[in-house]
Amino acid sequence: MSASREKKSRADSTYVQRRNHHETDKNRRKHILYGVAGGVVAVLAIALLVWDSGFFQKRATAVTIDGESYGPAVVQYYYQSALNTARYGSMMGSSDYASFDYSTDPADQVYDAESGQTWKDHLLDQAIEDLTQVTALVHAAEEEGYSLTQKDQAYLDSELSSLDQAWRSSGTYASLDSYLKVNFGNYMDEDTFRSLYTDQVLADSYRNTYQNSLTYTDEEVEAYYAEHTNDLDTFTYSVLTVRASVEEQTDEDGNTVEMTEEETQAAFDTAKSEAQTLAQEIQARLAAGDDVQALVDEYGDRLYNSSVHAQSLGSASAISSAQYADWLYDTARQSGEVTIVENDGSANNTYTYYVVQFENRERNEDPTADVRHILIGAAASGSTPTEEEFAAAEEEAQALLDQWKAEDGTEDGFAALAVQNTDDSGSLADGGLYTGISSLDSWDQNFEDWCLDPARQPGDTGLVKNESSQTQGWHIMYFVGWDDPQWKYTVKSSFKSDDVSTWLDGLTENVETTRGSGMDYVG
Fold first, then answer.
1. What confidence tens digit (pLDDT) does each residue in 161-190 have?
2. 3-state class percentages of the chain: helix first, strand second, coil last, to nearest 5
3. What are phi and psi of 332, to 5 degrees?
């Protein structure tokens, strides 16, 4: 081989080696690149799964209040509460929610046309305000060393236990967390719910304790009474109502006969004249001294309705919203006076005559009663129990009363027992407590008679049968003590309401609130 060919052969060999090395290096880099890309895809997939799980969102700070940070789950809970209030208010025709459409997304509804604020923004503001108040109360309670009472702890335990039972009994949810997510938002979990609910119970307990500690002098109470006698006096009166309306006309086959406007007006005028004549006749007989109940019995179905010897505080809606309120409030009224008050309901083709007899007006000094009770329902709410069901409920009530006497015997213990056992949702959170009970309220008669027995002493207990309320059964009774007369109880309640509001404003006015990125996940 010539020198030149040998040189070329070596060059070709070197080229091949370099080319092979380059290809090997290229393939190695390609594998590394694919490996890195695969790793990135895997990381992104994991990150996406974590994101979808809400791991990052639930840990984001939605709001910081007085140094306390809250995630989206807590704010969502308070937002949902505000939203539910708005929906209920809208359905019930509340003027505060007149512009709210409960069937439309709050984010698509304008709350304030001038600022452009949506209902969602408004309800979020309400949620933050409510959470701020709870936070301020909890911090104040902690600074004071205030802790939950036996009754409060029993209530908290009972509510959390009921929550656990709810998801288990439904048969729909795999766990408590899944139940919480469906009912309180995607970022809610058991620990968060327990924490926020504990704060709520502590805040309510601390506020109630403060409210109960407020006292007022007789001079303050009397001064208020002097300015509000119409509201605080007890009125006794009778009302017989006569109403004129156009009855629907039918032919001999039962078919509705359409009336012309002229015929309708003529029929209405006739009915109105007859109703007025009847009202005047009743007025004359009452003025002549006829017994009001006897007249109600005599006139029967000719009356639209009647109320005989009714007793009511002047501030109660039975009087304050009545057409005849001003007549009753007149201090010149004398016992036995009778009048007729008219109300034109022409929009509904009706005209009403109220025959009102004034009987008495006084500042009632009879004491009211404070009691605790445990209601043992004999049947489902709204159902009338059988005698056997009443008997079973009485046996259960007696067993609970005996258990309490043997194990505790204190008011606090009774309150805790009420939280755990009562079927009265209205008094559950308060340990079965009702205050200011008087004959002016609408209680089951057996319940009222037991509470207002003049011989009743603090610590008295007993069983009372309930045959009239929505949930019938047996009450286990505990008499706490006698309270102020109704008028004075009402005055002090008004004072306390105003003073607690002022106190709460003071607790929250300087609280710093900062919204964070977690607000993006609320609503």
1. 888 888 898 888 989 989 999 989 889 999
2. 55, 20, 25
3. -85, -5
